[in-house]
Amino acid sequence: MTVSALSTTAARPRKPFGWSRLLGRFLVYFLLTLGLSFTLLPFAMMILSSFKTNVEALRVPPTFWPQNFTVENYLKIFNDPQLPLLRFYGNSAFVAVFNVCSTLFTSSLIGYMFAKFEFPGKRILFGWFLTMMMIPTQITMIPSYLILAKLGLINSLWGLVIFSAVDAFGIFMMRQFCETLPTELLDAARIDGASEWQIYWRIVLPQLGAPLATLGILGFMGNWNAYLWPMIVLQKIEVRTLPVILTWFNSTHTGQPAVVMAATVLIVMPILIVFLFFQRWIVQGFTMTGFK
Amino acid sequence: MKHKILALLIVLAIGLTACGGGAEPAGEEGVIVLRMWVHTNNAFIAGYEAAIAAYEAEHPNVDIQLENFDYELYLQTLQTAMPAGEEADILQLFGTWTSQYYERLAPVPPEVMTVEEAQQTFYAAPIGGFIVDGVLYGMPQEFNMEYGGVLVNKSLYEAAGLPYPPQWQTMDDVLADAQALTQTDASGMMSVAGFHFTSADPTAFSFLAGIKQRGGDYWNADRTGFTFNTPEARAQLQWMVDAVNAGVVDPVVFNDETNFVIDAFFQGKVGIGYIGAWAIAEGQANFPDFADEWDYFYLPPFEGDPVFVADSGWGLTVSPNSQHQDIAWDFIKFLTTNPEMAMQWNIASGTIPAMPAVAESPEIAAAMPWVPKALEILPYGQYLGNMPDRDLVVYEIIYPHILNTLQGVETIDQALQAIDTEANSTFR
Amino acid sequence: MESTSQRTRRQHQGLAIAKRRFVASVTVPLLLYESLGIFVLVWAFVLMFFDYSPGRLGGPLLGLGGSNPFVGLGNFIEMVSGDSVQAGLFRASLRNTLIFAVAVLPLNLVITLPLSWLLESIGNRFKALYRTIYFLPVLTSSVGVALIWMSMYDPQGGWINAIIRFFGGTPVAWLSDPRAGFAGISVAMWAVIIAYLWQDYGYNMVIFIAALQGVPQELREAALIDGANSWQAFTRITLPLIRPTMLFVCVMTMLSSFQVFDIIQVMTNGGPNNQTQVLMLDIYKSAFRYQNMGWAAAESFVLFLIVMGVTLFQMRVLRTDWEY
């Protein structure tokens, strides 16, 4: 009956090693592996399809394993002048890196200020940020777009950056961490003649390493995978980011599922591997913040 | 301190690019630079590039810079650039859009062309879209005809043992061929559609044409409202339902979203594919490996004369914010009314000419053999009419309700009632 | 003595000034930037009372007025009782959004809770590997997820229909058949729900695993020793202890499913017969396809009210939870 081992100090005589225990064990692994296959199967399908010829990819019923293993789809994408993948990677990287750097800078600075300084209007200002955290982006989407249009920033990667410089959630999180910093440490630095900016840069920031890394990875992931807002702002092909390019590529290559799957592999997989390396931080971030 | 400077630099950089974004492209000394916006269609763009090269050769002091946008986002770009006054000097517009944008467009100067001259020069359907309240706002380049044209797969015809080219006298002949062409796989799913007419434009425009051919109209007398709940509309919708029941197409597997007619036809999954002639260039470009033989034909009318409505077509307009409107109009006149140029553009883009004089030329017949077939019905084309929101009426009202009816989730009565109510509510 | 105290006082004054200058140098740019945020919010609020389209000339102030007329509560009245196509679409989207959120939540819990529990109960050797793999879809771009599932659902070449055909069943046009349904929900909606669940369950699992790790092992063991079976130990001991986490997970899942967009926009774009048209998609189409931005602003306000309602509910329930 029992699934996992009881403590060895159990007073009650334990049932001898039995079939039911083995069955339970087997069931656990069976269910977990079932879930696992369900998780992996779509990935397998994507990767396998990308190595099929287009004729085979359209076959009814579909094949599982590619019969004529080919890398032609990948070559086609690399040689497509309409699809300079590196450029789109550059666009995505620019937006993600710039946004992450700017929000890490502003979040830590403002969070530190809220935690360690007293100034008139502090409560109101903090209350404002708390309110901003609750307002979903879709309500500001339309006027933000109209402002970008007025500024001439539609079709500019800067348009994706300008409204993301301050992140209310990041400020909130950084304030929590800054409050745990010992004030004596900061005061001692002040007595030693350090300027306030030096204290922020040399003392506060290094202490915030772990939460900043978490916030940074989550922010990078969010920016990298963002779809709706980049789709609205970036209308010209050459400035688009990867997710928007992927849907565009799909819509211009209907009837060529193998090529589309190859493009999906090229756009999804590299960063997935990178994210896997940072998995620990991401999991930590999710459990710590509860935000995606 | 360093970091303050860094922060300052970032702010400065943002500011600089913000300013840079809206800047006009700098021209060389004495060269007049005109910007031109078009939607992304490689065949069209090739035509424009050739025309620009020809114009610049005659006018070395003019530099026309072509920029293109994806169709779906072109509209969005126009709508946001125009209020900000940042649109290009020359704008490619679909004729029917003019009634939505005319406030922000420059009227055609009378010395370039008057309304009367334009009506004599072009077919009624293409020019109709560019005239709003008796004022001309642009020049059409093509006759956009969504009605009547079909791609026909010769290989499937021969495999089914049908005579080719098709000998259609009535729509019943088409349906008979289509029934023979349809194939179903072992599990009962339709794998080849005999007659795919269930994409958005073909469905909507054959519905409108059917109403006209049966002697009805979808406009009320003074064109201030729609009348879709009429016996003629009912007869046309019934015809479509009967066609589906006859098994020529499964509207669940073949429609605008799934197995769109161009994609499905050029994968050999459609015998007769109902779509405008513009699809030919696109299909050839997107499916270079398609091996079946095929051609383009026109359907017989549902009833009476092949009367149809046409949705204007692509043409060129000028921004009132342009510094060089005179040159912009000169270029547009050069491209659209000069028969030689217009013909080259139509051949490059694979479109039906907007001028009868060009459409009837032997050069066009040689380059695009389907155009002479279209000439027989082109004179019957009427302009669709200025709707408050053409895309909304066609794509969100007429097409979805008809598709629902064909798929069996709405009755004919429900569909006509809903189309009528919803279409009229676009006049607000 | 005297001089040192003076010096410290002076030093204190100097420090206070430095602090104030620091605060000012941060808050002044911040306030300027935030005024942009306030402007955006005010604009969003004002827009929903207008019939506004950026293509029209409109009045002098932000293009409001003139050909973009003030309609008061007209947009909201239209939503409730209008017979226009927009009003019909809005009501359909609201219904679909509710269906989507209500279906996703229990399904998600039914998958994630047992799986996390099973995963937590096995030895450490495989745990990390299993967890990593379950986590993969969360890290994948939702556009990629949508494309992968689109090809899985393909009526002709898709694997799902291939499996159905293999077992002799009738293949289904998953993403385009408006007639077929199951449990009162259309197949297309089920299809996007499954794709969405697939992408999302790893996220909740991670949170549940963290919570389960926090449950003291001794409590469970004590219960088992007292004769409870594993199931009883789970429902009586573990479940109550992770209740706050469950509540939190419920609310977060609810909130993100109310705002679902990417997967549905790519997979079905709202079809067939608007059966998967959800609020975010409707807002996007109204604002950017049909340039009906006043209407779209009013729609986003409705979505905002829903999201706000769920958030406030969460805060209230969690607070009462903390009390004991």
Which oligomerization state do the chains in this entry correspond to?
A: heterotrimer
Largest sheet of chain B: 5 strands, mixed
Taking the sheet with the most strands of chain C, its summary is: 2 strands, antiparallel
Radius of gyration of chain C from CA coordinates? 27 Å
| Order of strands across the main sheet of chain B | 2-1-3-13-6
User: Globular, elongated, flat, extended or rod-shaped: what is the shape of chain C?
Assistant: flat
The main sheet of chain C orders its strands as 1-2
Radius of gyration of chain B: 24 Å
Overall pLDDT score of chain C? 86
Low-confidence stretches of chain B: 1-27
Span from first to last CA of chain C? 56 Å
Mean pLDDT of chain B, rounded to whole units?
A: 87
Percentage of residues in helical conformation of chain B: 40-55%
Keywords:
heterotrimer; A: 292 residues; mainly alpha; 71% helix; 0% strand; disordered N terminus; B: 428 residues; alpha/beta; 19 helices; 46% helix; 15% strand; globular
